[in-house]
Amino acid sequence: MNALTASAAIATGRVQLANVRQNALVTARLRALWVMVLFIFVSLTACVRIAQLGLFEQTPERTSLAEALLPSRGEITDRNGVALARAFASYSLWFNPKAMGEGGAPLVKTPEEIARALAGIFPDADYADLVARLKAGKPCYLRRRVLPEDANKVFALGEPALEFPREEQRFYPQGSLAAHVLGFVDEAGKGHVGMEQVLESRLLDPAHRGTPTALSLDARAQGALEDELGRGMLETSAKGAAGVILDADSGEVIALASLPSFNPNRSDLAYNDLVFNRVSNQVYELGSTFKPITVASAIDAGVITDLSVRYPAVPFPVGKFTIHDSHNFGASLNVPEALIHSSNTVTAHVADLLGPVALKRTMEALGMNERPPIELPARGFPLWPHGGGEGGKGDWARLTTMTVSYGHGIAVTPLHLASAYAALVNGGIWRPATLYKVDPAHLAPGRRVFQASTSARLRQLLRMIVVDGTGRKADAPGFRVGGKTGSAEKPGSGGYRKTSLIATFAAAFPMDKPRYVVIVMLDEPQATAQTGGQRTAAWNAAPIVGRLVPRIGPMLGVVPDAHHDVDISDLSPLVGSGEGE
Amino acid sequence: MIVSAHRFRSIGWIALLLICGALVMVLAFRVNALRSQVHRTEQRIIALRKEKLYLETEVETRANQQQLKLWNDVEFGYVAPTAGQYLASERQLAALAKPDGPGSPTPIRVASADDAVAAEAAFPSVIAGLASAADFAAPAPRVADDNDSKAAAKPADAADRAKATANLGARLAMVTPLGKDSKTGPGKGKGEKAGKDNKAGDNKAGDGDGKPALARSAKAATPAKSGKGDAEKPGKGAKLAPARPDAKPGKASPAKSGAAHAENSAKAAKPAAKGSKSAP
Asked: What distance in Å separates the CA atoms of residue A519 and residue A357, rounded to the nearest whole number?
């Protein structure tokens, strides 16, 4: 029994051992199986993934080269491809108070110290404003645009809270050059004032913004114009100055400047009075520069057939009003002399013979009764003299005709005058001014205002004014400049003000085949030592043209040549000598 | 046996399929690897273009019109050129030069890499006149065995002139093209001799015989640098000798061509230069 019991017990133990072993084996196999399944699964997954990557993977976020390089806003260039405005990732100065963690002071030094250092780096910064912003502890821009070297200086202050994120902004590499033409882009990315506003949709259009938009401007001529105008303005202590260079044949604006200017790179400061464009927006009575237009109209109409005919040059009473000249030029003058000395009375006589209908028609044909035809958004409406009859649409009164003939009683922009002078010298075709580069094969359809013979005669007369008359200081040697001065008194309360003048010089060169029209205007120039104590255009506006033309001529393809000139030999004998306005 | 063959074939098919699959796989992998490489390169191009734009803008900003004006006011003081500084034509430019007077220093002649145009252009009329006089003295016909005949020389001459008018520098060397009589080159005998002695010289002697003799003398006078040049110059030196109006062509030439045989080209060039100097 005991033995049986013992053997049974042993047998049971063996069985149990065998079971344990079997169980262990099963478990082991099961585990191995699991490991194998897991391994196969992992390797299968890896294979599938590799195959997927190797065979089908197309990087979805991948963008093409062109797309990646597409600027956020299209570039604007001048006619030669010089960048005037471009989208550019520039540094800005951002104050991040949480840069050093949530608790504690945002700055290592005191806000006053930092503000003082920043004001040292950026001289135009407002110290009090900086202190206020740094103390407020709110994240904000301290400055929208920072130069790399200034960013380095700020970095050297060792403040982690001052960050320099690079942001795509509108940048004008040429600074304030052509600011009135370009305009500026505000912080919200919207264009204002100039072509930035006009071209807004094109500059933002993904289909077009990749290619730069070429304007008709020439950056070199623009620089020279601004430079010379600025100098003239300083020399005469004028309030402002305006200038425009126009291609006489195509109407392209080669340069357009209105001073004082603004810096479009500081869009935060740009919106002020200086954005007002004196060339296209402000209307002026441009005075004697209208006389050649009157004479051309009279030659065209057959009123002047003989330039040697003399007209009385004594004060000319018209109703209650008497037309005077600036000086006494003797009892009578012929037309070339009248232009050379800038005689109001003779021009009034010519206009009287011409009549209001013909003069008005000429002025209308030159676009003097509508806003200047240019792309800029700011265009001034001329002060067009009222005529008689219903709603002032009828003919001008006799006195109005006479005053308009010498540029009073009618106020237009300098751009109007530039287009008119282009028509005067280019053979008689008036074309709208444009800021787009024009293909010479696709000129805008112009309208004929003067006959070609009239234009040829005017080229002689304008050249004579510069050779012998009031425009002598504009006579750049070899450039065959022709033009007319104009010094108009500004209207004030109680009539014209004797000491507030608008001095204008309207010129074209080279006169044997005019390529460019140059208009220079000074607003209220003062009599200074540089201008010989005079404040008329002959002394301040004409010299600007005389300095400007040699600078721009060769760059614009006009080579000076002392041996060429427009032939004035048939008119020279008609002219005596004297001084004019 | 049949089963085994069938099996073998199916195993073969499977193996082929596997190999093809593997090859496709490898190809696909390579394609995609290349594609991602292209992508990386594009990224790099984009980054570089942006960097370029950045640098370009920086340069433009630093050198903008106003900045240049300031520098000019302070540093350079450049002014626009006046009307007197422009020349309308080469004639005006040539008019600025002083004519050679008696006892004037010899003009310095400088070797240049591309003197073919200048050398092949016709020379000033004064010299050309003398050259034609020399030709008159030695009215031997040009090398006859050359391919271009006299009739072909005319267009060749015109082409050379067109080439000469291509740049201003070349045009300065040419004032008046030579008359027809200048077409007859230097003595045939000398040309042949030079040709026999020196193959390169022969080539030179053969072409462009419509040119005046002295046009070549200028070239010959330039000291040769390369070995090839050395080989060419003696030939010309030999040819030039008869151009001297005072020298009798028949006698002078063997001596000169003898000099041309000398290995040192400078030596060969010297007599030629002398010849050219003595001509005017």
From this structure: 27
Helical (H) or strand (E) element with B55: helix B2-62
**pTM (global) more than 0.80:** no
- Compare A246 and B217 and report the one with higher pLDDT: A246
Which two tokens mark B194?
Answer: 């030079």
Residues from A in contact with B at Cβ < 8 Å: 51, 53-55, 57, 59, 62, 65, 68-69, 82-83, 86, 88-89, 148, 171, 173-177, 219-220, 222-223, 226-227, 477-479, 550-551, 553-554, 559-563
Looking at the complex, report in whole angstroms how far the Cα of residue B55 sits from the nearest Cα belonging to chain A.
Answer: 11
Q: Which two tokens stand for residue A156?
A: 């050297």
Measured CA to CA, the distance from residue A245 to residue A218 in angstroms comes to: 10
pLDDT bucket at A11, cuts 50 / 70 / 90: low
Domains and CATH numbers, chain A: 89-99+125-171 (no CATH), 223-574 (3.40.710.10)
**How far is C-alpha A100 from the geometric centre of its chain's CA atoms?**
45
Other C-beta atoms lying within 10 Å of the C-beta of residue B90: 14
**Neighbouring C-beta atoms of residue A22, cutoff 10 Å:** 10
Which one is catalytic: A250, A258, A280, A288?
A: A288
* CA separation for the pair B229, B218 (Å, rounded): 14
Q: Residues B251-262: what's their mean pLDDT? A: 39
Q: Of the candidates B219, B232, B225, which has an alpha carbon nearest to the alpha carbon of residue B260?
A: B232
- Please tell me whether the peptide bond between B223 and the residue prior to it is cis, using omega within 30 degrees of 0: no
Phi/psi for A507 (5° steps) reads -135, 165
Answer yes or no: do B29 and A57 touch at CB < 8 A: no
Q: Is A405 a catalytic residue?
A: no
Largest Cα separation within chain A, whole Å, is 171
Q: What type of residue is B239?
A: K
Residue B67: DSSP 8-state: H
Please report the sign of the dihedral spanned by the C-alpha atoms of residue A527, residue A530, residue A533, residue A537. negative
Classified as helix, coil or strand, A271 is coil
Contact B82 A477 (CB under 8 A): yes
For residue A65, the chain B residues in CB contact (below 8 A) are: 42, 45-46
The pLDDT, as a whole number, for residue B279 is: 36
Q: Which residues of B touch A479 (CB under 8 A)?
A: 83
**Integer angstrom CA distances of residue A245 from A84, A378, A441, A545, B220:** 18, 18, 21, 11, 55
Neighbour tally for A330: CB within 10 Å: 14
Helix axes A344-354, A291-301, angle to 10 degrees: 30
Site of tokens 């190797």:
A54
Q: Where are the alpha helices (DSSP H) in B77-222?
A: 90-96, 116-120, 125-137, 150-164, 168-172, 188-197, 199-206, 213-221
The count of C-alpha atoms lying within 13 angstroms of the C-alpha of A136, restricted to the half-sphere facing its C-beta, is: 13
Domain ranges for chain B, please list them: 2-55, 116-278
For A257-310, the pLDDT digits (tens) are 999 998 888 776 666 778 889 999 999 999 899 999 999 999 999 999 999 999
**B250: helix, strand or coil:** helix
Percent of chain B with pLDDT over 90: 8
SS3 call for A496:
strand
- Tell me the CA distances in angstroms from B57 to A20, A34, A89, A168, A576, one per residue in order: 83, 65, 10, 13, 57
CB contact under 8 A, B61 and A173: yes
Tokens for B90, please give them. 């080469």
How far from the centroid of its chain's Cα atoms is residue A288's Cα?
Answer: 28
Two structure tokens written together for A543? 């010299």
User: For A22-58, what is each residue's pLDDT tens digit?
Assistant: 999 999 999 999 999 999 999 999 988 877 776 666 6
**A115-140 pLDDT, tens per residue?**
999 998 888 888 899 899 888 888 88
Backbone torsions φ then ψ of A521, nearest 5 degrees: -135, 135
